[in-house]
Each structure stands twice: as C-alpha cells, then as structure tokens.
Write a structure and sequence with these properties.
305 residues; alpha/beta; Rossmann fold; 12 helices; 6 strands
C-alpha cells in the first residue's frame, strides 16, 4: 500500500489506558471514513496506537492516589468518593503529567521529559518505515499533548538550525535532540513533513504565561511550512486561545521562535460529540472531552487530509 498522507493523534492529560486511547483513535478513524471518499481514506495511514504516553507516569500516580485513600483520610463517604475524590483523582493525574512531561529546566524531570519525546520520535519512525520520508503528516493533539508536541518541535527546530543552518541555539538538556545522532531522515524526524497541526483543548498558556518573552514554534521558516489551527470551547477551562499570547512576544529579541499571533489561527466552537455530548457536556467544563467527535473539527480534519 502506498500512502499519500499520515495522521497522528496525541492524547491529553489524565488517567488513560492504551486500549482506551486505541478506542479513541478507532472512533476518529470511523468518523473520518464517514466524511471521506473510500478511495481517499484508504490512502491515509492512521496508526492505531497514535502517540501514547500516559503509561509513563500512570503507575506512580496510581500509587500516590492509593496512599491518599488508605493513609491520607480521603476515603470518607460515598458522596465524596464519587464527587470531590473524582476531581482530586483527575487533578493528581493531570497535573502530575503536566509537571513531569512539560516541566522546565530545574524541575528535576529529565526522565519523563525525555521519554515522552521518545514516544513522538518512535511514532514518527513508524510512519517513516511504513510511508517513507516524503509523506505529508497531519497531527491532532489534545490538551497537554499540545504542550508536549510544542516542546518536541521547539527542540527539534533548534537542533535543525544548529546542524544545517549554522545556528548556535541551546537545546534543553533533557531533550531527545540534545545529543542526537544524525540520520539521513532528520528532516522528517524534525517534523518538516508536517502540513497541518490541529490543537484541541490546548492549555499551552498555563505553562508559559508567566514568562516575559513568550514564543511559538516556527511554522513558515527554516524549512517548515504548516498550518496551525487551535480549537477551543468557551466552557472548557483547560482549553485556551493562543494568538492573544502574541502580546507577550518581544520583537527586539533575536531568540528562536515567533509571535503566537503570527503562528496560529484560533477557532472557538461549542464542542460536542453528537447529541448526548451536546446535552451533557457542551455547556460545561466536560466540553474538554468532546473535541475529537465535534463536527466542525472533523470537517476541518477531513478537509486537511
């Protein structure tokens, strides 16, 4: 089979098993198959495993939560177990993921930062093996996955500029690109074949808004040429517009990166995964879970493919 493009899905924060994520990818595949001609859909490579990383920290988070329940006095009453404790459990898993995978230098999180970048690297190696180095790539990333992929791109772009364009940019010591052994398909692994990036429920502002000079990855320079569409729901407290962060960009700096105002197109939607999603989730913070089944997102994704 000769594929004409590839689609990679990347999940967000929280407690997620690999089988659950494969189910999410399978549902996404079916939704796209319903919107594309069969002869077109058959030429799109969609790995069933996507970019999965939740298992890297899940056991530690499970152990901490179990200790909270058995030793910390949180196992108090049926109502609390099914209300407040569910929220606590999500926060433990979600924010622990955020600290481990997207923490900055000095956070002492070298291992998870490196390992999660290897998950992206390995997924790209799989696409390269199946499709070759010239296949265009589309990526859809959810929630924390957006920040993780942004970190990967940021480090890869610095590596690319240093090795091919004579740059002298520092690369995060935890990055898979820090001491990368050059290959003959580095441009592919650096995501120069990326054509469209969809971010949904993106929480990048949570990680960078405290900095004075906030910069987005390049999408039109140094061999990169991709569109970036960011979908967010007004009721999603974990999903944000990105272009307004352009106000934190310092145009006088010669550092890597560009203004978010120039990099990304924000699109506000009322995210819902069908009629039950509209009834139960589209009007509240649970809209964070609805993007990949939303008709507006699926139409745009199908069009890009």
């Amino acid at each position: 089979m000769t594929y004409e493009c590839a689609l990679l899905g990347m999940h967000g924060m929280g407690n997620l098993t690999q089988n659950e994520f494969k189910s999410d990818i399978a549902k996404l595949r079916q939704n796209l198959a319903d919107r594309l001609p069969a002869n077109r859909f058959s030429k799109i490579y969609i790995p069933s495993s996507g970019i999965f990383y939740s298992d890297l920290t899940q056991q530690q988070e499970d152990d901490v939560w179990e200790a909270m329940i058995t030793q910390g006095g949180l196992n108090t009453g049926l109502v609390r177990r099914n209300t407040i404790n569910r929220i606590r459990r999500f926060i433990i898993s979600g924010f622990s993921d955020a600290t481990a995978f997207a923490g900055f230098n000095g956070s002492g999180t070298r291992q998870p930062y490196t390992e999660v970048q290897k998950c992206i690297y390995d997924a790209l190696n799989d696409v390269y093996t199946v499709c070759g180095k010239d296949v265009p790539i589309v990526i859809i990333s959810q929630s924390l996955g957006c920040q993780i992929l942004s970190n990967y791109l940021w480090d890869a772009q610095r590596y690319w500029q240093n090795t091919t364009l004579g740059g002298n940019f520092a690369i995060d010591s935890r990055s898979i690109w820090k001491n990368h052994q050059t290959t003959n398909y580095d441009s592919f692994l650096c995501l120069q074949s990326l054509k469209t990036w969809f971010t949904t429920g993106c929480n990048i502002p949570i990680f960078v808004s405290g900095f004075q000079d906030v910069r987005a990855v390049h999408n039109r320079q140094h061999g990169y040429n991709f569109d970036w569409f960011n979908y967010f729901d007004y009721d999603d407290i974990l999903g944000y517009p990105l272009a307004p962060m352009g106000g934190l960009f310092d145009p006088n700096s010669t550092g890597h990166g560009q203004s978010y105002a120039n990099a990304v197109t924000d699109i506000q939607i009322n995210a819902n995964d069908g009629i039950w999603g509209a009834i139960a989730s589209s009007w509240n913070p649970m809209s964070h879970t609805q993007y990949w089944g939303d008709d507006a997102v699926l139409k745009a994704l199908a069009s890009a493919l």
